[in-house]
Give the backbone structure.
Amino acid sequence: MKGEKIKSYKELFIWQKGIDLVKDIYKLTKKFPESERYALIDQIHRSAISIPSNIAEGQARQHSKEFRQFLYITLGSLAELDTQLTISMELKYISEPDLNQLSIKIITLRKMINGLLAKLTTSHLM
């Protein structure tokens, strides 16, 4: 796809990885206590969902400057999700290995987004 214009956000690997992360989060939060249904679980879901959603919205705007803005928002959502997962581990809702596995995915996605941001700053992908 080098040199080609992106036609849809669904072509973006970062969007695909974001969707995978959402699925992992939903699977994990099924184990949380029911008392967290409208508190921490809801907040975690919103943070996770905002990741691929902001990637999609930014790419759909068709301007590199706006896309970069939405990618920065996505980075914020990743940090928010990472924090909420740390809280979940501290509350013993998830295990340390579960947190570590998701943290690796979050870090990987963050690096990919930062790489795309660098490319968008120096070229016009859209």
